[in-house]
Amino acid sequence: MTREQLESILLKRTGALQETPYPALLLALSSYDKPAVLRLQRNQLKKEIVFDGGSPVECRSNIATETLGRFLVSQGKLSEQNSVLALSESTSRGVPLGEILVEKKLLAPTELYRVLQQNLGRKLLEPFSWKSGTYEISFDASPASSALRVRVPQLIVTGIVKVDTQESADEAVAPAKGKFLSIASALDDVRLTADQQKIVDAARRGVSFDEIRANSGVDPDDVNRITAALLLLGAFKITDRPVPYMPPFKAAAAPPPPPPAAPPPPPAQEEVMSVFLSFRRKDPFDFFGVAEDADISTINQAYLKFADKFSPSKFDPNAPDALHEKAQQIFLAAARGYAELAHNERRDVLVKRRVKAREQAEAAAKAGQAALIDPEQLYKNGCALAEAGKLREALSNFELAAECDAQNGNYAAEATWARFQLKLTPAAVALKRLKDALRIDPNCAVAYLYGGRLHTILGNKMEAEAYLNRAAMLLPKDMRVVEALKGLKK
């Protein structure tokens, strides 16, 4: 997209996702270096994505499975019982769940940081499947309290390759048919998979788009998805003839400087990560661990001790997990916090604000839990309705579950099979949808089962047998698979 198109999106601020798709909104907001909020709504589903410095740093939604506790349970990192107990304490104390988990030693700070990044990335991927709905961009946003960051170029590549619809990718690359791809810009912010690198290397060699689809060894549908993502990012451009790739000139590297003197031992890595995860959320009282009625002497001592402990000079710039950079951010935040506590009037205002925030947090927690939509429960309801023969009601549950969690192959497969049974989707289209479900989850057993049934209906015996044998491996005791295999042999 051109700079003018991105600026136009930011100026417009509101619209429909049919006209301005989610990837374009991400790209536009990545060019805006101040705090901003992107609000998305599709039917009952709502998402609010907070940007800071062009990067998504937080994503709030009304989808129950996107909460940290449910995510940790689904990943096997936390038991259901511990999740409920920790969430209860988090709500009653007004402290984020992650900090409660670290406090109770259920997670180490470094592990929590990585899990939070994974959960944020997963939540940001869902709207790539939203082809209808509305958006609103707000620049009236407070500075972000999150320590997380997601790179937009990597998010766009992952989202289009993994979650976006095949139709969108096919439409985006249609102008490339019969033409060539050439490299337009570097991909420094994207970690390419082996298949993605094959497409980039072919473009560098001046291979035509049609030849890449035919001979790259990558599934043609995946070629379209990868190409669509790189075209949107401006890494590729479409040309009428091959354009040789000219790598940028690099001057000879200067000799490395002598190694610096070893810095004094810093605080333990887990301690730094623990403070880093929470410092943007905490106000100066929480930051230094002082009471609201603490005198200036106590505040001075707390600040000096904290600043000495997290002085950036104590951290090796080459330490893992960018500890030097994290310590620098903590150190600067400490200086700002001390300035606020040392000023009598500003400290009084802060105390009043803390009292009001506690009241609001308690009310918001109660309201938020009541408003969550739970895709796991919708899926269970859909299965029960389908078993009772109520396919239309089942389809509504499956489709809403799939809208909540576009990365769950089971939801998508059940919705596809219900649509086929209701004669809303032809067999060939249903097979394509099931292929998408398997791309999301290669071990989605019901997608293989329904794919086998569809191939049987279409007379594709060899494909049907392959699908059903795979389903039998994943569901060895499921009578539906046994009956489908018996039917194939008749």
SSE pattern, N- to C-terminal: HEHEEEHHHHEHHEHHHEHHHHHHHHHHHH
Q: Tell me about the biggest sheet?
A: 5 strands, antiparallel
Radius of gyration: 26 Å
User: Would you tell me the overall average pLDDT?
Assistant: 88
Shape: globular
Rounded to the nearest angstrom, the distance between the terminal CA atoms is: 55 Å
Number of helices: 23
| Portion in strands | 5-15%
Q: How many strands appear in the DSSP assignment?
A: 7
- Helix % is 55-70%
Structure description:
This protein has 490 residues and is of the alpha+beta class. It has four domains: 3-150, no CATH class; 154-239, Orthogonal Bundle (Arc Repressor Mutant, subunit A); 283-369, Orthogonal Bundle (Helix Hairpins), CATH 1.10.287.110; 375-489, Tetratricopeptide repeat domain (Serine Threonine Protein Phosphatase 5, Tetratricopeptide repeat, Alpha Horseshoe). 58% of the residues lie in helices and 8% in strands. The chain has 23 helices and seven strands. The protein has a five-stranded antiparallel β-sheet. A two-stranded antiparallel ribbon has the order 6-7. α4 (80-93) packs across α5, α19 (409-421) packs antiparallel against α20 (427-440) and α21 (445-457) runs antiparallel to α22 (461-474). It starts with a helix and ends with a helix.
Summarize the structure.
This protein is of the alpha+beta class. Helix content is 58%, strand content 8%. The chain folds into 4 domains: 3-150, no CATH class; 154-239, Arc Repressor Mutant, subunit A (Orthogonal Bundle); 283-369, Helix Hairpins (Orthogonal Bundle); 375-489, Tetratricopeptide repeat domain (Serine Threonine Protein Phosphatase 5, Tetratricopeptide repeat).
